[in-house]
Amino acid sequence: MIIANSPVSALLSLAEKFQIADDNEAMERVLVQVAHHDESMMDDFHDSINIAMEAHAPELAIKLVEIFERRFGQKYQGDCSREEIERELPNIVASRRDEIVFKRMGFLERGHVPNRATLSPILQISISIKGIEILQRRFFVLVRRNFFRWDEISDITIETKKAYKAMGLASSPFQQKTCLITACGQVFVFDVSGSYPDFRRTAQLLATLKKYKPITQSSASDQKQQRRIQKRRGHV
Q1: Where are the beta strands (DSSP E) in 7-121?
Q2: C-alpha of 54 from chain center
Q3: What is this structure's pTM?
Q4: Residue 48 pLDDT > 90
Q5: SS3 breakdown of the chain: % helix, strand, coil, rounded to 5?
């Protein structure tokens, strides 16, 4: 657990930010600095190693374990043992070769506010032959990783509707497209419109999803009809 108001906690928070931004080089520099900091305690090493594993960097995690064992003169026992980390190493290295990562654009890169306002934006989508990993922000600061095998994904749908985008003082109509991924009772939503989508390389993202799972299309009229059907069934 990261404790606030200490030099080491500040470094760990910075490392987490780099990990979320997928900047593993910067993250590694900070975590090594934590490992050699005079005030670093055992719990700080646990946090550092967990951050490294969240970033799919088992080589760094093993490096931190070695520093821990030299410093404290005992075998590392954390959420993952050294043996578990070493067993995971070939799996992670292999998964890197076939994994494609798509990152959410920021305001400056997109050039406009998002088409869809949300308090829980999807920050990153990683797609591989094993499944899909969705990195989502919750409650402004908490970040959650969700991994689903392809057989756990029940539906992928693109909903299309007419929407309006504020452009200066005017309001301009456009065709908004929203992708919904349903898995294990959860629904993950992100914008895939032609203008100001949430992610870079939207066409490649959808094409990659389609390689593993069919994508259905739904228009505004389809959605209204489906709601009518559901409403009738509710009255039966």
Answers
A1: 100-103
A2: 11
A3: 0.55
A4: yes
A5: 45, 30, 25
